[in-house]
Specification:
The protein is α/β, with parallel strands linked by helices and 443 residues long. The chain folds into two domains: 129 residues, DNAb Helicase, Chain A (Orthogonal Bundle); 238 residues, P-loop containing nucleotide triphosphate hydrolases (Rossmann fold, 3-Layer(aba) Sandwich), CATH 3.40.50.300. The protein contains 17 helices and nine strands. The protein has a nine-stranded mixed beta sheet, sandwiched between helices. A hairpin with a 6-residue loop joins strand 7 and strand 8. The longest helix is centred in the N-terminal third of the chain and has 25 residues. The radius of gyration is 30 Å and the shape is globular. The N and C termini lie far apart (95 Å).
Amino acid sequence: MNESDNALRIEATVIGTLLQDSSRIGEVVAELNPSDFGQNMTRAIYDVICNLHFAGAPINAVTVLHELGDEWTEAIAEMRKYTTDEVVYYANMVKEENRLHSIRAAAMGVSSAANLSDAAKGIDRLNTLVMNRRSAEVVSSSDAARDFLSTPEKAEYLPWGFKALDEYVDCELGDFVVIGGYPSAGKTLLSIQFALEMAKRYRVGYFSLETSPKKLTNRIMSHLSAVPLSSIKHRERLSKDDWKDLAAAVEKFNGLALDMVDAGGMTVRDIQALTLNKQYQVVFVDYLQLLNAQGATRYEQVTNISQALHTMARVNKVTVIALAQLARPDKSQGKPQPPTMSSFRESGQIEQDADIAFLLWPADPNDNSSDRVFKIGKNKEGERMKMDMLFDGKTQTLRPRPETKGEHYRKIHKQIREAAKSSAPQQMSFTELGDDEGGELPF
């Protein structure tokens, strides 16, 4: 039996089983489209079966033959010879066989491409086929309840490296996070610090579309060693103590599960393919608007990028942390206003897709070397907050500004006042009884 005959028999087994036992149709339709069938004959029969199913009509050899015509009598009779108790397994075989056939055809198209542009389109088609996911995850209430009870008492969330942020933001694998900032606000610097912290426990891929891995490494070494970046870029300025600090930084960096990817010209599909191949659990994209995407307008392109990154995170259970440029503040009416969620440049889709969104901007809009203001602009499963951050451009470091004594005491007094309010005795109130609420009084 050749490969084509075997494929036909598998498809015929699915059709024959449904003709004999229509109660299985729901399971199969959840897995298979008519287009998944590689043989014209079986595809036509299955298409009729689906139409009858969605119309609420009975499904058997008679009703199917009525739709197709008498010339299909022999084919229907032949199909009924093949049945199985494992029809869902066979349905998946049909789907996988069709995908394999499509992948082979796409690969042939790449190998015979006339130019690099056609080859790139073919590779994108291949990525789409490989990453194709049709089956929906269906969780019953009983399964969800059992999973809830079996969850460990201490939930695991991604670490950010800042105590205040860890307390406010519960980020899980599969979330889509956006870091928004003006150009040169420190988005890359902040994201590198996040990546270094997360790479202690997770496999992290940092996809940079504007900075080379070598330059990223210089920034990371400056941050880890506290040696000025300018000295690292001009190594003749390094002292013996600097080299000692850098050696310790290299040892720290060497122990992290962090890959830096030169992602210039990549699409979301390219990132997804490499992410699955390398088994990254957390992915950083610097930055979102630089990714290649289809769309008639810039708005459509950025919208498609945002939706694709959100889908990638959800489908693959990978946390995607994308940096995004914010529109420049309007200075026409005096002092520039701090950014908001509507400041995301070129598409409001970014605001909608994000599970968590951070905003970062200079405390002094006229001085880019000033400290930074960090804000949680969106937090689907938590509270929002804002904090001041000290900016050290020399050593590529951002850190929360320590509380002053005055701020500390004001916070304590506020907590005392709130506690007093919640524990204050309730004022006694009286309600008049109506005539129809009679009966014996309790005194």
